[in-house]
From TrEMBL:
BP-aspect Gene Ontology terms: monocarboxylic acid metabolic process
Membership in a protein family: Belongs to the short-chain dehydrogenases/reductases (SDR) family.
Gene3D superfamilies in alphabetical order: NAD(P)-binding Rossmann-like Domain
Pfam families xrefs: adh_short (PF00106)
Domain of life according to the entry: Bacteria
Protein name, as recorded: SDR family oxidoreductase
Entry-linked NCBIfam families: PRK07326.1
InterPro entries per UniProt: NAD(P)-bd_dom_sf, Sc_DH/Rdtase_CS, SDR, SDR_fam
Amino acid sequence: MLNNKVAYITGGTKGIGLGIASVLLNAGMRVAISGRNLDDAKAAALQLSSDPSKVLAIQSNVRNFEDEDKALQEVKNHFGQVDLVVANAGLGHFAPVDELSVEAWQDMIDTNLTGVFYTLKASVEALKKSEGYFISIASLAGTNFFANGAGYNASKFGVVGFTQAAMLDLRKYNVKVSTIMPGSVKSHFNNHEPGDNDEWKIQPEDIGELIVDMMKMNPRTLPSKIEIRPTLPK
């Protein structure tokens, strides 16, 4: 069912993005992964496969629409189609609101929220053509606010609202749009170095498996917003 379909994943060089890419490849899909550094993207692509007919590395900063527009053109030129787009790139800065810098606020809004819009804007016509799927990776922080999280909460609440509205706009074209809201994930988020102490968390490949299940769901049914969390948090 998924054989030779094409996915584009932002923030695909490590963590959640790389885990998703690995699972999609194993399901028979072809994948393009992007990151801000081309060398990192190429190294991650080689981790996945040495076959350029299956994996494409792209340099793109989601904060720049021109980058994302060019990235989607690269995907179409290389693979001929786009069936799935996963807007995964994101970052976090955490501080009380009275101490949160303007630069940190802008960094999160530009990357986490505006970046999702740019990725969808750049890919929407290709997704209409393929009757494809757009998935944003939000967070449980998009529905649960917490101290020191004003900027991060704002960006992720925004991603959830944006994606749900986009779902209503695009379903008439048979384009599916969903948001996934993970809790704690074993990843490099916020400069964390994953290790054995993270085994209780959601694993990146778990999110990949969820996306495969979503892709295989009967077209009449749309899981538009999905919360996932560790079964037994520490």
